[in-house]
Here is the input.
Amino acid sequence: MINFINSFSKSGKPVKDLSRIGTLLNALGNPQNYLKFIHIAGTNGKGSTAQMFYEVLCCAGIKTGIFTSPYMIDYTDRIRFNGRNITNDELLPLCERVKACAFGKDYSQFEITMAIAFLFYKEIGAEVVVLETGLGGTLDSTNIIRDPLLCVITSVSFDHMAVLGNTLEEISLQKAGIIKDGAPVVVAYDNQPTTLKAVRKKALDSGSELIIPDKDNTVIPSDMLFGGEFLYKGKRYELSMSGAHQVTNAVNVIEGIEVLKKYFSISYKNIFDGIKKASVLGRCEIIKKSPLVILDGCHNEGGIKALSDVLKKVDAPIAIVGMLKDKNAQKALLPMVPICKSFITVSGFHTNSYTSQELKDILISLGANAVTGDSIASEYQRAISGKYLNTVIFGSLYLVSHIKNL
Here is the structure.
């Protein structure tokens, strides 16, 4: 099963339209056409937003699926339903059905996995599926769905420029490509005017209601290192996840749930409980409070800036960092330099990672105090044993996954 999935590359052959995934799904009976979706795109915050929607809907007793990427510990954690992962017994026959229809090797692992997920959700009777895009929007294979109940655009910033474009406008237009005719769209209020303009135009052209949460009606405490309470439109909510940026994601969910109340019975208590319950591995995750160890898979300018804002309340953190070479480390790491006391660079968690020396040189060029580290396992052990007092480990979801599997 895993050998079949791994026989495809992570990205697949480049596409100019959605005909490839369309052909595969058509051969499988177009299971996506029998499902209802909440479709989520953006550069940062997609995973957290998706998890909050999922928990709220589960708390409301709605049969809910969630499809995310990448997996952190096991392949099956990408395909979840009602609080559990798909089982291997469920996965195997679906994998065989997809294998029988997936001719050639042009498909990506993402496309193959998504096809399996759609079959699973159809057959298990999911009432709604929270669907996170993989990359971009317009040409992302998830965009094959039609008539979503709701579209959501989280924070948009620079990432995957080789595919999505070199300007924020180009990237924003790609993300806004998930907006379908007549489908309401919620867009995060912290986006740049360029992004809001692109989303607004696409919504107008599609005849879609555009909802921007009310920033002025959002009250956020000054310190949300360990989560905490916030107010939105006079109502109290509570987050378990760290960082004020999670409030931005939460109010997207609150506004999105208002739209979904047309289709489902969802109470304030369901929303409160779901948002509080939501947590995502490797997204500003508190591994240990004493000594403090934070694990974050942020890997682009927007994500690392959000992490640096969280760390402003932490006394002289030591950073263990590893990144992939397709990221602009020079720009992305800059907000962390004045925050962190020193940096320890690591590599070896991915074939395309910067070497420890390369990353050290970049950090020194930014004026940081940096050294190359030993193995990831050794550095992680030193962190949790308290050698570094306060530690943040960040730079790549692949680094997070590597640590989770240690």
User: Anything to note?
Assistant: The chain has a mean pLDDT of 93. The chain has 15 helices and 17 strands.
